[in-house]
Design a protein that fits this description.
mainly alpha; Hypothetical protein af1432; 10 helices; globular; binds zinc ion
């Protein structure tokens, strides 16, 4: 049952994000990121709560696609929807404001939300989009490290992975600059 629900979420996310690509140099299909985040939560974070893994798969579906919260509740239940909502920014706001709000909200978020967020940050910090300016990369790195500092106590194994990756990205940026 749990595996079926997880596969349904993967199928749903793959369809909803099908037109979207990652901002990396290979413009990978967006679903690669969703699979990585869910896999990190399960295999590094050692989380076996299927609602959390489903929320990891769906963590960008409200923010980046026309999917509604009602739809997520109907298909995957209110608990999954609550997690996904907590992980979604309001895209109608400017980027800097969205990031500030995220930092304000993370300390109050549920532990499991912070675990998914940490996996998301670890996925995103691996490789910053090559077409970003150096200033934008630095700004993102600062924000990401700030968010990860808030989330790190929620899952030490994911925190270790995040800080290892962030360290490499920071070193690369300093080399470039
Ligand atoms: Zn994400």
């Amino acid at each position: 049952m749990d595996i079926s629900r997880l596969l349904e979420a993967l199928d749903f996310a793959a369809v909803r994000h099908s037109a979207q690509r990652r901002k990396g140099p290979d413009a990978a299909p967006y679903v690669n990121h969703l699979i990585e985040v869910a896999s990190l939560v399960a295999n590094v974070g050692q989380v076996d709560d299927v609602d959390v893994l489903i929320a990891a798969v769906l963590h960008d579906v409200l923010e980046d696609t026309p999917t509604t919260a009602d739809e997520v509740t109907e298909r995957f239940g209110p608990r999954v929807c609550r997690f996904v909502r907590a992980l979604s920014d309001d895209k109608s706001l400017p980027r800097r404001e969205r990031r500030k709000i995220a930092l304000d909200e993370l300390p109050q978020a549920e532990v499991l939300v912070r675990v998914i967020k940490l996996a998301d940050l670890a996925s995103n910090i691996k490789l910053l989009p090559p077409n970003w300016t150096e200033e934008r990369k630095r700004e993102y790195l600062e924000w990401s490290e700030h968010a990860a500092t808030i989330c790190s106590p929620s899952c030490l194994a994911l925190a270790e992975l995040y800080w290892e990756r962030a360290g490499k990205t920071r070193a690369k940026l300093e080399q470039e600059g």
